[in-house]
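Hi there. Long-time user, first ticket. I'm pasting a complex I've been working with (about 725 residues overall). I'd like to know whether the download I got is complete or cut off, because the file seemed smaller than I expected. Thanks.
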Amino acid sequence: MNLSDMMNIGLMQGFAGLSLFAVLLLMGLGLAIIFGQMGVINMAHGEFMTIGAYSIYLAARVTESLTPAFMPYYFPIAIGLAFVFAFIVGWIVEWVLIRHLYKRPLDTLLATWGVSLGLQQIFRTFIGPKEVSPTLPEWLMGSWTPHEGLDIPINGLFVLMLTALVTGGVLVALHKSRWGLRVRATVANRTMANATGIDTMKTDRLTFAIGCGIAGMAGAAFTTIGSTGPTSGSLYIVDAFLVVTFGGAASLLGTVVSAFGIAQTQSISEFFMTGSMAKVLTLSLIVLILMIRPQGLFAVKVRR
Amino acid sequence: MSRDSDTSLDALALRRRRLLQGAAALPVMGLSGLSFGQSQFPTAKVNTTKLAVTDTEVTVGQLHSSSGTMAISETGSIQAEQLAIDQINAMGGILGRKIKVIKEDGASDWPTFAEKSKKLLVNDHCAAVFGCWTSASRKAVLPVFEKENGLLYYPTFYEGLEQSKNVIYTGQEATQQIIWGLDWGAKEKKAKTFFLVGSDYIWPRTSMKIARKHIENFQKGSVKGEEYYPLGHTNFNSLINKIKVAKPDCIFAAVVGGSNVAFYKQLKAAGITGDKQFLLTLAVTEDEMTGVGGENFAGFYSSMKYFQSLDNANNKKFVEAFKGKYGKDAVIGDVTQAGYLGPWLWKAAVEKAGSFDVDKVVAGSPGIELKTAPEGYVKLDANHHLWSKARIGQGQLDGTFKVVAESSELIKPDPFPKGYQ
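Hi, the file is complete. Here it is re-exported in full:
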C-alpha cells in the first residue's frame, strides 16, 4: 500500500461520511420542521418517505413502458412528483386527523403511528410485499474517477447536491418568505399570531404538508441507494428521530450539525471496527451526550 | 302398477348411479398414475393417531410470514407450496383425499411462529406443516414439533448443524452450497484470499464460520476481513473502502434481504463490478435480483442449487405453471423451488407408508425419490436432507442467471461435516 493509495482511500472515506451526512440530513429535515415548528410527533414520517420512493418507482415503470427514450431524464421530474404526492397526502392527513389534536401533542404520536400502520398496509395491498427498486438512469449509477484508484460515487454526489438545495431552500423560505414569517410567529406565540391576523390553522396545514413533501423527496433520493418495501419507513424513522432529537428540536441548524456528527462518527468508526460495533459506539455516544444535554445540541428558547 | 315394480325401478336407478360414480372416479385414478382410492384406505387404518384426516380430506398447515420484514422472501415459498398442493389435488389428492390447507402467519416474529405451530399441531391436528424460512423461526418451532410429534417441511438453504426426526429439509445445507461454492471459486477463479461479509444474525455468522474453517484449514487460503452489518443496513461505503484496502481475490457475501440492493448499487458506484472483481454470494436469488437490478449484479456469481433458467423439461413445466398462476412477472428463486418440493415429498412418503401417521411417514421418507423436481432428480437421505446438485449462476444484465457450473453428481447431504464445528 503506497502513499497515493492511502490518499485515495482517505478521500473516498471522507466522501463516504459526507454522503451519509447528506442522507441523514435529508431524512431528518422534514421531521425537524414538523416536530420542531409544530410540536407534532410524526411517527408516519418514514411512510411519507416511502411514498416518495414509490413515486420514483412508479414514474420509472410508467416511463419505461410508455416513453423509453425519456428514461435518462425522468429522474429530476420524478423527484418533483415525489414532493407533490407526499405533500398532498400530508395535507389530507393534517386536515382529517392532526388538526384535531394540536391541544394534545402526545396523542399525535398515537394518531400518526396509526397512519403509519395504515399506509404500510396500503403499500402492501396495492403495490405488493416485495421490495422494489426503480431502474435508474445510467448517468446516475457510475462513479466519477478523477484519477486511477479514486472512485467517487455519482449517486452520492447527487444526494449531496439535492440535500444542499433542499436545506438551503427550507432555510431561505423560513427566514425570507411570508410563510416562514407566519410559521415563526405561530411557533413563538400562537395566540398573539392569531390576534395579528395570521391564519394559524392554514399555516399549520401548509407547514405539515411541506414537511411531508420534503420527506417524500428524501425517500426519492433514497432510491439511488437502497430498495423500497412496505416497511421501509420503519427503517428510516429511527435514524430520522435520532438526528432531530440529538440536534435539538426546533433548531434546523441543530439538525444539520447533528446529522454531520452522527454520520462522521459512524463512518470513521466503521472503517476501524466492524459495522455492528460502529453502530453500537455511535448510539452509545449519542446516549451519553443526551444524558448531559437532554435538550439536544442546540436548544431554541421559545415562549409558549 | 304394484309397489314391487316401483322398488325394482328405484334399485335399478341406484345401481346405475353407482356405476356412473365409479366411472367418474376412473379418470382421476388414472391421472394419479397410481390407483390410490380412499375406499382402499379407510380412515381408521391410515390414521391411528387422531390427525385431521377424514374419508375425503386431509388437513395440512402452512406457516410462513405473510406480514413483517420477511414477507418479501417468504411470499415465493407460500406460492410454490400452494401450487404443488393444487396440482396434487387436481390429480386426486393423496390416498384419495383432497388436501385442505390452514394458513397461519408467523408475522416475522419468532415467538409467534412457535405459538402458531402449536396451534396447527394441537388444535388443528395437521398431518404435515410446510413452513418457516429464517433459521431463527425454525429454531423457535423445533421444540414444539418434537414434543407434539409433528412433521415440518422446511424449504430454505441453511447453515446445517441440525437434524430432527420431525423435520424434512428440502433446501441445501452448508456442504452443498458454501463449501462447494468456495471450492469452485478456488479452482475456476484461482481465489486464494477472501473477504467475508454478511448480515448480522445466525445464518450468515454460522455460514461464515464454516467458510473461514474451509478456507483456512482445507484450501490453505486466507481471510482478509470478516464484517457483519445489521439487518436492513444501507450504507456500505466504508465497507467498500475496506475491501479496496484488503484487495481480496474473492468477496464472499451473505448479505440478506433489502440490504442487498444497497450493497450491490454501492459496489457498482464504487467501481467494483463483475469485470474487475470476483464476488460469490449465498443470498441472491431471482427474488433479490428484482430489487438489485441486473445492471448492478451483472458478472457476479451466486451459489444455489436452483435457478429459474435451468434448462430441463421438469423446470419448463414448473415455470409455466407458476407464471400461469401468479402472473408473467413472477420470478422463482432457489427457496421457492425448494418450497415446491415439500408437498410432493410428503405425498410420496405417505403413499409409500400407506398411512398419514407421522411416525410411519418419517420411517418411509428415507430413499424417497422425486423424478419430477424442477431442479432435476433428487432423493431424500436418511438424515432428512436431500441429495441434490450444487450450481453456480452468473448474474446477467437482464436480471436472470446463467448457470456456469454444476456438480457432476448429486451431492450427499452432510449436516454435520467433520472439522467444521
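A couple of notes from our side: The longest strand of chain B covers residues 57-64. Residues 85 and 333 of chain B are 19 Å apart (CA to CA).
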